[in-house]
User: Which sequence fits this backbone?
């Protein structure tokens, strides 16, 4: 039994009084009497054992302890309100907590969510970026979208699309089309999470390039797109992530070859949530938006192996397992 927890009413009274630095205005906000606010705050001060307010001529002022406690209480009340609204939203269509890789989310998924709202009014998709694999049990996420090895333990992977990156650059840097030998003479933009991407691309064309791992290193596709648009070099980027740049002429495709064995984007769902109706709907909608309705490739199988032990979870993941 939790014996040292204040009531929600006491915390609300304290937070309002701290925000306004006035018991009178706190009472007006909460539709209570000033006396009720005073009693709630006094009871809270008795519970925590330290004064939270200093009484001054024109009202009250927070003590140092009161300021610290007010920040904590405000944060917890905000979290409680948000979580309560999320539970209420489940009754009107559902809420999904989705981990996403940044550029895919901003360039591909977000522009399509208006279609989801039309198809399923009331369904709310909350997104936060994650750039490395994680344990679903340690988070509030219902699913994840990422590119890399889809074999997460205790999950099922649903194929969406291949990356199929191609060499692109600013028309001010070079004019296409160019063969691999000509591209090898240009400055190459490297992606830090795909350090061998250019080497693999040149190898797939039968062309060796001495500087295939040299050049400016950037993490996100969006960074590569901006750097390439500014004429800093040639980047390997999936065309569907830079449709606007290609349409505007900021970027051009130097060579349509994307090479074999490219990564793919997958929707990853924990096994325990596979039958959740909202997730089933989102999975099918996402597959339709991606234009894919067939079975997942063999690599996207359900993974049952135990996850890395706690001592290894902070180690850098192997190449191919980093979220993008």
Assistant:
């Amino acid at each position: 039994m939790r014996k040292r927890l204040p009531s929600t009413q006491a915390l609300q009274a304290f937070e309002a009084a701290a925000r306004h630095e006035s018991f009178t205005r706190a009472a007006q906000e909460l539709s209570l009497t000033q006396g009720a606010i005073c009693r709630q705050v006094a009871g809270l001060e008795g519970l925590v054992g330290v004064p939270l307010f200093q009484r001054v001529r024109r009202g009250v002022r927070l003590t140092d302890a009161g300021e610290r406690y007010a920040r904590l209480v405000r944060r917890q009340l905000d979290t409680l309100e948000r979580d309560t609204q999320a539970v209420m939203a489940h009754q009107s269509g559902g809420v999904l907590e989705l981990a996403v890789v940044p550029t895919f989310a901003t360039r591909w998924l977000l522009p399509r969510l208006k279609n989801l709202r039309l198809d399923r009014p009331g369904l709310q998709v909350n997104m936060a970026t994650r750039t490395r694999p994680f344990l679903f049990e340690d988070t509030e996420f219902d699913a994840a979208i990422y590119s890399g090895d889809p074999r997460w333990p205790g999950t099922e992977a649903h194929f969406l699309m291949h990356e199929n990156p191609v060499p692109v650059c600013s028309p001010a840097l070079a004019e296409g089309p160019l063969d691999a030998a000509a591209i090898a003479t240009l400055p190459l933009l490297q992606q830090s999470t795909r350090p061998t991407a250019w080497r693999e691309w040149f190898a797939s064309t039968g062309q060796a390039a001495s500087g295939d791992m040299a050049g400016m290193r950037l993490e996100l596709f969006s960074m590569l797109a901006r750097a390439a648009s500014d004429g800093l070099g040639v980047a390997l980027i999936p065309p569907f992530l830079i449709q606007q740049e290609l349409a505007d002429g900021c970027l051009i495709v130097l060579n349509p070859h994307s090479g074999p064995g490219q990564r793919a984007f997958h929707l990853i769902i924990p096994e325990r949530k596979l039958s959740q109706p909202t997730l089933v709907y989102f999975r099918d909608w996402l597959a339709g938006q991606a234009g894919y309705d067939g079975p997942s490739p063999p690599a996207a199988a359900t993974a049952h192996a135990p996850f890395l032990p706690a001592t290894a979870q902070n180690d850098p993941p192997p190449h191919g397992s980093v979220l993008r």
Observations:
- The two ends are 44 Å apart (CA to CA).
